[in-house]
Structure formats: C-alpha cells, structure tokens
Amino acid sequence: MKNFGIGFLTGLAGYVLAAFFSYYLTGKFSSNVHDRSVESSMTSAFVFGPIGFILAFIGGYLWAKHKL
C-alpha cells in the first residue's frame, strides 16, 4: 500500500509538470490563431497531463518497490 501511495504522489507531480510544460509549449508553437488558449488548456489537461501521471506513477511505484 505504501508503494501505491508513493506512486500516486509522484503521479500527481507528473501530471502537474506535464500539464504545465504542455500548456506552455502548445501555446507557443500552435498554429491555431482563434482559440490558442483553449487548445492549450484542453490539450494539457486531457492529453499530456494524464500521460505524465501514468508515466510518473509507474516510475514512482517501481522506485518505491525497489527502494523499500
């Protein structure tokens, strides 16, 4: 259970970091002129944020399992 908790916390951190960076990069490099901010927020919240959560969760869980 402790490994799952550490994985979950690292997953939350991964979500926040991935969403922040994808919001910035999507806003900077998007060719969409009319609603760039909406595209950036939706892409970061629903695409790259969950991907960051999953990858960070797996990494944190495996790290905790190996370390503890």
Q: Which descriptors would you attach to this protein?
A:
0% strand, 68 residues, 2 helices, mainly alpha, single chain
Notes on the structure:
The protein is mainly α. It is 88% helix and 0% strand. The chain has two helices and no strands. The chain has helices spanning 2-29, 36-67. Helix 1 runs antiparallel to helix 2 (36-67). The chain is rod-shaped and about 50 Å long. The mean pLDDT is 95.
Could you tell me the radius of gyration in angstroms?
Answer: 15 Å
- Describe the sheet with the most strands: none
Provide the helix percentage: over 70%
H and E string? HH
| Large-scale geometry | rod-shaped
Question: How many H/I helical runs?
Answer: 2
SSE-based structural type: mainly alpha
Q: Stretches where pLDDT falls below 50 for ≥5 residues? A: none
* Average pLDDT number: 95
The strand count comes to 0
Short description:
By secondary structure, the protein is mainly α. Helix content is 88%, strand content 0%.
Write the layout of secondary structure elements.
Blueprint: H1 2-29, H2 36-67
